[in-house]
Amino acid sequence: MNTEPSILEVKDLKIHFDTFEGTAQVLDGCSFTLGRGDTLGLVGETGCGKSITAKAILGLLPVPPTRIVSGEIRFHSRDLLDLSEKDLEKIRGNQIAMIFQDPMTYLNPVFSIENQMIDVIRGHARHANKTVSRGAAREKAISLLNAVNIPNPRQRIGDFPHEFSGGMRQRVLIAMALAGDPEILIADEPTTALDVTIQAQILRLIGELVERFRHSVLLISHDLGVVAAVCRRIAVMYAGNIVELTTIERIFENPAHPYTRGLLRSIPNLARRKENLVGITGSIPDFIEPPRGCRFHPRCAHRMDVCQKVKPVLADIESEHRVACFLYESSWPSASRPEERIKPLP
Question: What is each CA distance from 258 to 66, 156, 235, 272, 318, in whole angstroms?
């Protein structure tokens, strides 16, 4: 059990997008914590709000049309939502860094890896009120490329992005994220565009870096297998809400929320090849006019009347296991009738 104090706390975060069709309620009270040296996976279908959550932490949301309606994002007890852009620049990269999912989007094709990494390293130093010479920055860049297992880094540093494979470009992005010696790494779908073999290498690398440098990691993915390879804990997100928060072991051994169970049933299992995959009926709701109560209830086979009227809270059902579902007594409002409560199906 991880007893380290939390260094990052996202509390009741609500984010809206203003569109021509209306206001999209993209996040509806997202809450989680991240401790020192902790690894948390944020999992859910495409469009459920995972990347929006990550960008909100670093103040990278487009404003407008994005509005943070309420909530807190506390880093070492400081609310990042109260900081100025200048103060946020001191935190980005130096204390919290992000690994993005598409290297060719975030690497400039007309500049060498050397120039781009040197600019990043010297930029982080300036925000920390330090001065780093170009030569020292180059040596640090070579050291970082070596740390992420780029072969012959002293020779390859002068190459351009198109001269690297997809996996090597992703390693360069990881090296750039490490340039400011951050406490927290946010990895947003870091293996999406990679084949299975390279994906495994990148996940192994992230795991090694966590062990070596004691980074805290928030790993965003739609793939439970990817998260299981790196993370100790998992937060399952659906339509802007975290519906289950527990350890990796428990999510596979004893999933509690119907949505989580649906995700697991839709994963192919080589040991049960003759069984048909079972998908989750329906689709993610309209964020402009989301369902009342539990946002998952239109797709849930176990829904009750209360699910259509009241939003369940994320509550403890056992140690290190929290669920937002009226199948569990802890999620019920105190005024509800206990005879309506039912036990979850096996």
Answer: 30, 49, 14, 21, 17
- Edge-to-edge strand list for the sheet holding 184-188: 96-99, 184-188, 216-221, 39-43, 233-238, 241-247, 321-323, 315-318
66 lies in a domain?
Answer: no
Using an 8 Å Cβ cutoff, are 4 and 36 in contact? Answer: yes
Residue predicted with more confidence, 190 or 70: 70
Domain hosting 117: range is: 103-181
Q: How far apart are CA 302 and CA 280, in angstroms?
A: 13
Q: Does some domain include residue 54? A: no
- How many CA atoms lie within 13 Å of 205's alpha carbon, on the beta-carbon side? 26
- Give pairs for 105-110: CB < 8 Å, separation 24+: 106/173, 107/161, 107/169, 107/172, 107/173, 108/161, 109/160, 109/161, 109/162, 110/160
What is the pLDDT at residue 192? Answer: 73
How many domains does one find in the chain? 1
Q: List the structure tokens of 6.
A: 């939390």
**DSSP element (H, E) containing 184:** strand 184-188
Predicted confidence band at 255 (pLDDT cuts at 50, 70, 90)?
Answer: very high
Domain membership of residue 171 (yes or no) is: yes
What is residue 34's predicted lDDT score, i.e. its pLDDT?
94
User: Phi and psi for 159 in degrees, rounded to 5?
Assistant: -75, 165
Check whether 126 has a pLDDT greater than 90. Answer: no
> Which residues, 6 or more positions from 181, have their beta carbon under 8 angstroms from its beta carbon?
94
Question: What pLDDT score does 333 carry?
Answer: 62
- Rg of the chain over Cα atoms, rounded to whole angstroms, equals 21
Q: Is the pLDDT of residue 174 over 70?
A: yes
Q: Are 241 and 29 contacting, i.e. CB atoms less than 8 angstroms apart?
A: yes
Is residue 112 situated within a structural domain? yes
